[in-house]
Structure formats: C-alpha cells, structure tokens
Amino acid sequence: MGLVANYNLRSMIARKGTAAMTAMGIAMVVAVFVMTLAIAQGFQKTLVSSGSPDNAIVLRKGATAENVSAVARTQLPLIESLPQVARGDDGKPLASPELVVIIALPRFSNNQTANVPVRGVGPRAFQVRESLKFVEGRPLTPGTREINVGRLAVGRFQGLTLGSDVRFASQTWKVVGVFSGDDAAFESEVWGDVDLMIPAFQRNGYQSVTVKLTDASAFESFESVIADDPRLDLRPQREIAFYADQSRVMTTVIRVFGTFVTAILAIGAMFGAMNTMYAAVAYRKREIGTLRALGFTRRRIVAAFLAESIALALIGGVIGCLLALPVHGLSTGTTNMASFSEVAFKFRITPALLGGGLLFAALMGAAGGLLPAIGAARIPIARALREI
Amino acid sequence: MKLLGLIVKSARRSKRRTALTVMSVAVAVFLFASLRAILDGFNAAAAASSSTRIITIRSTSLIFAMPSSHTQTIRSIPGVRDITWANWFGGIYKDPNNFFAQFAIDAESYLRLYPEIELSASEREAFFADRTGAIVGDGLAQRFGFKVGDRIVLQVGIPTYGSQDFTFTIRGIYRAGAAAVDNQSMFFHWKYADERSIEAGQIGWFVVEIANPDAAAQVSAAIDQKFSNTPYETKTDTEQQFASSFVSMFGNLNVLLGSIGLAIVLTTLFVAGNTMAMSVRERTTEIAVMRTLGFPARAIFLFIAGEGLLISIVGGLLGAGLAWAIVDGQNFGVSGGFVPPFGVTGRNVLIGVALSALIGVLAGAVPATMASRLKIVDALRRVA
Questions:
Q1: Residue boundaries of the structural domains of chain B
Q2: pLDDT for A313-333, tens place per residue?
Q3: Nearest to A31 among B21, B263, B271 (CB)
C-alpha cells in the first residue's frame, strides 16, 4: 500500500493534465450509466410503490392489465362480502370498484397530446390507498362530477389546476382536490366517481376491484375463495406484484438500452485509460527499474500500477456521479405500455446506483490498466536503468 | 503532400497508441450512428407521412370508438375525396410477450388509401375474397415464420370482441413501401371483428383522404365541427401530427438521446485530445529540431492537427462502416414492436464521419497550437 500511496498517486499528480483528461473520459461514461439507470429506477419505483402490501386487485381471469379486464357490477357485492376484506370505522368494506380509461390532454412541455389516465373510483378509494394525501383541496364527493388530480398530472398536463373545469367525455368536471402519494403512478392520474364515469365513457361495468385485506397474510384464503366461487370468473393478485409486473417491460427496455450504450462507450473510455497507463509506464521506465533494483517484486509493481489505474478511474467515477446527481428528482414521463397511458416519474439516483457507477468505473480502470501494469513489471532491470 | 507523408509516419510512430485511439473513436462513432438511427426510426413514420391523409379519432381519446354512421357524414364534407377506417384489435398470439400490432380494416378502401402497403395483385384478390383472411408484413412474417396459407389463432385481448378465439388465414405478405406503414403489423377484415363485437358498428379511427393538402386544417375543422355537441365528438389531425404525438408518448427522446450523444462526443474528445497531447509532449525536442530546420510554425500546426484529424477520421470511417454493416432494421426490429425497426443509413454514416472529423480537429487544435508556439531554445534545452 505504501508504494501506491507514495509513488503512484504522487506521480499521478505530477501528470495532472493527462490524468484529468482520462478521468473526465471515464466520468462521462459513468454519468451516462447513472442517468439512464436512474430513469429505469424512477419508473420502477413509481409503479412498485403504487402497490400496498395488504391490498389485492381483482381482475378478470387472464387479464394482465386493467384495460383488458372486466368485472360486472353484480360481482362487486360478492367480493365486498368476503371476510378477508377489511372494514372501515363505519363497518363498510374497504373495496374500490374501478374503471381506467385514457383521455387526450395536451402536455405543458410540447403541447402534444398525451394519453392521461382517468380512474373512476369507489367512495372508499382513499381509505383503500392510505398512502395518498391531499396537498390541496378536498376529496371528491361521490355522486357529483368532481374530480381529484394527482400532483404530477397537475404539472404535466394542461388544464388540471385546482378549481378549474375540465371537459371530457362530453361533460364538464370540476377539480376539487390535488393528492400526492409516495411517487406512486396515481400521482399522474385523474380520479372521479366510478358510477358517473361508467355512463360518461359509455362502458357497462367495472374493470377491477381493489380491496384492503384484513392483513397481508389473508391473501391466500381470499384467492382460494374467489377461485372456488363459480359466480366469479375473476382472479385476485397482490397489488404490489401486479404493479411490479406492469413496470417490467419498460424497465427492462430502459435497462438493456442503458447497459448496451454504456458498455460500448466504456470500451472507448477504456482504450483511453490504456493509452494513459501505457504512457505512464513508458515515462517511468527508469523509475520502475530503480524500484525493482531496490527489491520491489514484479507482483508489487503490477499491483501498484493497477491500483494507480483504478484510482484514476475512481476519480473519474466520482466526478461522473457528481455530474449525474443534479438529475435526481427531475420529473419526466413515458408511456406505460401495459396501460397505454402516460406515467410521470422522477429520475431516481440511489446510493446503490452510485455504488454501481463507481464499481463500473473501477472495472474500466482495472481493464485498462492491467496490460500496461504487466508490461511495467516485465521491464528488465538492467535495460530500464540504462534508459534515458 | 510532403506534410501528409510526415503525418502518416508520425501516426505510425507509436502504433499501439494510434490503434487504441482509432478504436476508441471507432467505438464512439459506431454508438453515435446507431443512436441517430434509433431516433430516425422513431421519427420515420412522421417524416414519411402523407400530406393528403388526415386522421379522425374520438376527441376523448383514441381508445374510444365511434359509430360507423360517421362514415357517410364525413364523406359528405367538401374537400374529402376518400375515406377508410380501422380498429385496434389487441389480440394475443400464443403469449402476451409476442406482441405485434393487429388492425381490423375495411380492406379495399384501406389498401386504396395506403399504397405504401405493397401487395401482389393475386395476394390482394385472395385477401379480399376471404372473410377470415389476413395480410402480414414481411418483417412480422420473418419474426414468426408465417407463410401464405398458414392459419393462425389470436386470443382476444380487449373484452369488446367477446371471449372466443379468432382464427385467420394468411392470404398475403406485404412490403412496406415507405415508413408511414411498418412491416411488423397484421391487417384483417373489419367485418370479421365487427360481427363478433359485443356492440356492432364501432370504429376506432377514420383515415380521410383530402383533395388538397393545403386545406388539411379547414377540412379537419369541418369534420370536428360536424360532430361537436354530439355524444361522439371527434378530433382530426394530419397524419404527421398523429404520428409525432405517438413518438412523444415514449417521453422526451430527443433530449435523452441528445444528451447521450453529447456525452459520447465529450468522452471521445477527452480520449483523443489526451493522445494528441501525449504525442506532442513526447516529440517536443523533435518539433524544435524541425523548427530549427526551417519549418514554419504554420506547418507544425498543420502537421500536429493533421495527425489528430487523420487518426480520428480513420476511427470514424471504421465505426460508421461497422454500424452500417451490423445495425440493420431486420435485426433490430424485433423488440416486441416497442422500438420501431431501424437501420443505419448512409446519412447516419455521413454524420458519424463528420463527427469524427470534428473530434479530430478539436482534439488536435490545442496540442497543435502549443507545438507551433514552442520556443525553440527552451524546447531544445528540455530533456524528454
């Protein structure tokens, strides 16, 4: 360790210019790595945190998304009466029959039409999803054309601010409240009374029923009761699993894309690091010869130069992480292919992601430094000392 | 010309360093050209859209249907020359992961309005004659090994179409004549889907051909005006607006891919600039000798900058050529219809090579300036 600290790191300072350029090359790669994966993380977090551990969503058998599911009105009381469904303070079952459709609203950012999800919900929807909180206004009154809007939807789509009238499905709806909820996908949605939404959108039933279970472990018996009831051609899923599944395609696409791009870019930066390290070794042939003459083993020389390369790359990694950090929390949006609606989410940089970025930098440093380091150790002492 | 020989010689002086730099530029240009190709792929439909086609959907959003009686009303509007319609089917072929687009169309009018769907006359006849017939794009046919005469079964995805599976016979394999249509879709008869629908006579969207492209805005407004204050209000846009709003669905791709592109350029600039700086530093004495021999400062500048440019352009040609050879639409269009098919075009190659030239000039400029301004005496006194 002494050799690395005293010799290699100090000689890195002696070659400030080259070292800085190499580190910056690596920094760029790490910044791209962290930023693209921050998109995947943000999107995933948004969908996954939409689910709550003691909630279940009931869909038509075989349906993978709400928009291809159907639950008849007559099936709702059958589900509500099951003992696994939790009751509110008033003794009513905590279940929300729902319908999700999309409406076309222009975005603020580019004025183009976005597919905004509109969710018709039952009167106890906010009790079923406890993590949702009102930041402005109040919950909608069932039986009226009042709507509540998610916090991110207000900022992203035009005409959804508190107090405004929104026209869709040939009717006018009034925004009476804005809610937030732990970055959940609901923050991009517009909520209204499902019993008014069904006729307004010319539908004839619900798509899903979300229930709060008495506790998370009641799910298995809830599932088997529904499977055994011939009147219910439905299947419940844990809400968390359902939303995690919804995020899968998009998250995978972004991850694969991000990894592909950064891997290729990393090869380029690695060649740069290799150049730098070869030059570093070439300039210091005589010094290396001296070190060897003093009794440092070949292995220690390899280790020292490898460490120098990794340290250089790690400096780049830290700079890259710092360059990427400002995007954390920036809100953006994309289409959730499973629901064909736009989901707003925030770039999310976690400590683990930063750690991944540094590890990635270290790998680039190691890969770029290995051959030059071995080259350094192979230098014959006598010839190296003779070099000018 | 003497200079060129000198540049080549000095580039070959440290072969390993030159090779590593060439490769890192090549990798960067490869990536850059591929990203441009992806972006072009997304924008291709909008770019190739027809100026005589406008698209009418429900004003609420495109997932809602309109009654087929709209057809006659739209046809009667002045400026409308022809009309066709389509529905999204959303069926599942064996497994939801096999996603591809299926459209229920009014076959004769649809193929009339979309000459880009290229089909042989015999296949066209066979398709028209078979109520359960379908045509598939050559890309889709390749993806699943579909052949003319094959029977395929689609599970219903959208509850509107009942619960019974649909069986189709492939009657033709079409080629996409322009990017306004893709070669990954399936088309079949609207009537076949309609007769099984829970509610008959439902249409997803109309494609209207207008006589005069300059009148697109007026005709669109006239259509929407006709249905305003009815339960089925419409929203009509040009095909181009429609296509670009689809692209914007994916998020801000221009900014995302643009910033990645910038990062690529900067990374390579650091790598190549570093190499040039190292090579100049190594040759300080040599350059001083050249100056002493009478080479003017300008020649030294060109000599060093030329080396940067040469290395970079060789890398650029290599990378862009590689991208052109490997990244082709057929290989990369199979991502479940999620990313449109894309291939590196000649234009992408040119942009890539131009980019490498830019990197070369920028990377060589500073070291070349430094080299040309060297004080001969100082440089000669310096020990390498």
A1: 2-45+251-380, 60-232
A2: 999 999 999 999 999 999 888
A3: B263
